[in-house]
Automatic annotation (TrEMBL), chain B:
PROSITE patterns cross-referenced by the UniProt entry: GST_CTER, GST_NTER
InterPro entries referenced in this protein's UniProt entry, alphabetically: Glutathione-S-Trfase_C-like, Glutathione-S-Trfase_C_sf, Glutathione_S-Trfase, Glutathione_S-Trfase_N, GST_alpha, GST_C, GST_superfamily, Thioredoxin-like_sf
Protein name: glutathione transferase
CDD domains the record matches: GST_C_Alpha (cd03208)
UniProt domain GST C-terminal: residue ranges: 80-204
Organism domain of life: Eukaryota
EC number: 2.5.1.18
Originating species: Catharus ustulatus
Protein family (similarity comment): Belongs to the GST superfamily. Alpha family.
GO function terms (MF aspect): glutathione transferase activity
Keywords tagged on the record: Transferase
One GO BP: glutathione metabolic process
């Protein structure tokens, strides 16, 4: 049994008495990537099983708001360890610390945080592309790919080149690696030849993809979400922007 | 080398102001420096952006990374994982509100009134009620764990920033009024609120012009 499975089972046993019925973390969001996808990646990489409750219409959001489940009336919200956590970064920080994906000390954490904040900035660009009106998409696409190829990816290519190790920080798997992998896969969806200039990122992607928990998450049937299609975008507009 | 953290930014609030607040609240003196010369675009800036804070041998960028490091180092991040989660949630919520204030000076003239209304609405209906309730429920001086933390500093900064735009914004929030007074009287914060501290004035037209010029791309 992989280390991740033991962690997950121990977690379930610890949480039997409180929180969700199953003891597993429960994610509240729409059935698409958005801001929750990073959370799904982190939980999956840590080998933690989770449940999902999908918002499908505006009333689903209103209901959560009215029963006081959402501290600032927003999703993502994750029920975990007796808490209803909101705010993407707060949730990601908690999960990362709990499952040892946040470095071994304050300085490693600082490095991880810098990397991860850059990745969040790039993720924002990639994420907003889907919901832009058609006439704004082209220019946005050019800008986001420019930032990806000239501002962000070169940084991580260089980090890997400089220390020659498999992981970004401290020679062990951290959230920085998981979040970078998430971004690389998304960037490749937008531009299939994106790795032409980044050979080390290409081999990073292959290596990370072989870690059992991550390999499982990359397979069909996992809780990883596909890029949002028209139907999902439509749903998002109705739930949040109407 | 003075050993003091060195901050590199524009001569204005922007994204650096929250960092100045946190350092000041922790009683840490900063070494002042001007805006980056072209020399700094030599790889000192990981993602070609400021804020930059040189601290403990690191050239740190990304506002949240910097603040999280400072909070961790100076014991302003709670005593355990659960307190930290609470602090993180509060700080992230407040930072969403601060983002509106950050962007406000750059609103096109015809959007200014609407944006001001949004700030007032979000402050009074989404964010301040949460902290009013937190303080009321536990009856303690500080937001988390009965101890001064990053969350308290961030809330204090936000209260003052919103008040500059909406002077009577605390009128429906008696707990926050008491909180504001208590925070103002904490020695490190009191010092920061006095003239001559590293605190920057509200953005004016000159600041906006400088930002647009410098961050053109």
């Amino acid at each position: 049994m992989a280390a991740g499975d033991c962690t997950a089972i121990a977690e379930i046993l610890r949480n039997q008495a409180r929180g969700t019925m199953s003891g597993k973390p429960k994610l509240h969001y729409f059935n698409g990537r958005g801001r929750m996808e990073t959370i799904r990646w982190l939980l999956a990489a840590a080998g933690v099983e989770f449940e999902e409750s999908f918002l499908e219409k505006k009333e689903d959001l209103t209901k959560l708001q009215n029963d006081g489940s959402l501290l600032f009336q927003q999703v993502p919200m994750v029920e975990i360890d007796g808490m209803k956590l909101v705010q993407t970064r707060a949730i990601a920080n908690y999960i990362s610390t709990k499952y040892n994906l946040y470095g071994k000390d304050l300085k490693e954490r600082a490095l991880i945080d810098m990397y991860v904040e850059g990745l969040f900035d790039l993720n924002d660009l990639l994420m907003t592309h889907e919901i832009l009106p058609a006439d704004k998409k082209d220019q946005h696409f050019a800008n986001m790919m420019d930032k990806a190829e000239n501002r962000y990816l070169p940084v991580f290519e260089k980090v890997l080149k400089d220390h020659g190790k498999d992981f970004l920080v401290g020679n062990q798997l951290s959230r920085a690696d998981v979040q970078l992998l998430e971004i690389l896969i998304m960037a490749e969806e937008f531009k299939p030849d994106i790795f032409a200039k980044f050979p080390l990122l290409q081999s990073f992607k292959a290596k990370l993809g072989n870690i059992p928990t991550i390999k499982k998450f990359l397979q069909p049937g996992s809780q990883r979400k596909p890029p949002s299609d028209e139907k999902v975008v439509d749903q998002v507009m109705k739930i949040f922007y109407s | 080398m003075s050993g003091k953290p060195r901050l590199t930014y524009l001569n204005g609030r922007g994204r650096m102001e929250s960092i100045r607040w946190l350092l000041a609240a922790a009683g840490v003196e900063e070494e002042l420096t001007g805006f980056p010369s072209p020399l700094l675009l030599d790889g000192s800036l990981l993602f070609q952006q400021v804020p930059l804070v040189e601290i403990d041998g690191m050239k740190m960028v990304q506002t949240r990374a910097i603040m999280s490091y400072i909070a961790g180092k100076y014991n302003l991040h709670g005593k355990d994982l659960k307190e930290r989660a609470l602090i993180d949630m509060y700080v992230e919520g407040i930072s969403d509100l601060m983002q509106m204030i950050l962007m406000f000076p750059f609103s096109p003239p015809d959007a200014k009134e609407k944006n001001l209304e949004s700030i007032k609405d979000r402050a009074t209906n989404r964010y301040f009620p949460v902290f009013e309730k937190v303080l009321k429920q536990h009856g303690q001086d500080f937001l988390v764990g009965n101890k001064f933390s990053w969350a308290d500093v961030q809330l204090m900064e936000a209260i003052l920033a919103v008040e500059e735009k909406v002077p009577a914004v605390l009128s429906g929030f008696p707990q926050l009024q008491v909180f504001k007074t208590k925070m103002s009287n904490m020695p490190t914060i009191k010092k920061f609120l006095q003239p001559g501290s590293p605190r920057k004035p509200p953005p004016d037209a000159h600041y906006v012009e400088t930002v647009l010029k410098v961050f053109k791309k």
